[in-house]
Amino acid sequence: MKPLSEFNAGILPPLPQLLQPALQESAEVFFQCPGEDYPISKAIHLSRLAAFYPKCRECPHNGHTANLSPEIIERLKQTQRSRASAQNPFTQEGVRGVYLNQINRTQAAHIAGAFSTILWEALPLKGLVPRKSLPGSKPETSTTPPVNQERSRGPSVVIGFDERPSSPDIITGVASALRRNGCRVIDLGLTVPSILSFATSHLQAHGAIMVTGAQFGPSYTGLDFLLENSQPVSAGRMLEKIEQISVKGFGRASRQPGSQRTFHPMEAYRAQFQKHFHALRPLKIKIACSLRLVRETLNTLFEKLPCELVWVDIPHQQRNLLNPHDNDVQKMQKQMQSESADLGLIIDDDSRRCAFFTETGTLLSNTKVSRFLMQSLSREQSSRNFLLDQTSLDELSEVPAGWNIQTHANTLADSYFQMMQQQAVYAGGQSGYHWFRDAVPTCDAILTLAHILAALSFSDAPFSEVLSQTS
Question: Residue 86, CB half-sphere, CA atoms under 13 Å: how many?
């Protein structure tokens, strides 16, 4: 008896050669969505692609688009390109990612645990010295602690979160991870980076974590880190170590869980500015800032001053203060031109970076602002050691005699480190961050405004005219 295949071959004519590759390709493709244990038809596969079904993002067959429209195919390609170019959540100054899609509570807790491991490693060892038996004294009992070396009690870590809706969820994971690793958590609640930095130094904490998506879109969240004495953590300054530990994994540094308490820093934070906001000439100042705590602080400081403070509303959004075409920059320029004011200022959503405007609405380059501040500080300070990034240093037409200007790498951590090393009284640059020497190097937009107003109070001339005299 003939095999069935030979029987069919004798009845059915052979398929045309042109059709065989297409049929073979269709027969070899086995459609099954990732995570599912049952196959689907090609029609369902195409319909899911057209509907941008989430599991299609990881499907090895998402390139089989058949007769889908060119518009849908192009959108699918754009989605794949954006996923392929997804950035590492570790940025130059911290951790950033889209809430839930890239960073959730569990991932933030893991990174916070990696940071706490670094703080534990930095703690000094505590030795227990054996007691010497004195003549006539009783011998030590079995309850006497053994001679050994152990870590002192866990590091103290200040934590806080910004105004984004995702921040309370992320801070819950951060606090839990820190306590689990034996840290003593000091919770500021809702705050801003400049206040967190002040509280870290004020409380002499070993480190700090700020939950924030500052300088990114509204859907972003992230973590910023501080070490002892409010030293920032940036690329090239310990940030890579946090990433390495989070990837490699870590164990618990202590079996004893940590504690958590709250601290309210606002009264002490505002009190530190009293020495700066006094003896100022009457000025009308327009300020744009989306941070409630910063606005409340400035309102309190200006209550007893002869200055008039006018607020310009701007939303929580990503902005580029160096770009004259930025929406918030243009809004401030229009505000300055429509109603007269002596000075304009935008404070970014990290409470530190800022941009200044003259009375005519002109956006000032940060190099001009830095020179203006250095000129003022050279009259007030005995030291004339300054720091600028290389771009700003190149833009200076000439360096006055007696000024010692060194360069920094244009990161927050390097500005801090170089100020400590070079004994500098100021650090600035193109980024819009202005650092001043206090108990520790401090970067705060409110402090920057205080120095600008103090410098303007030496003259009755408009801001633009005073600037021209120093350039």
Answer: 11
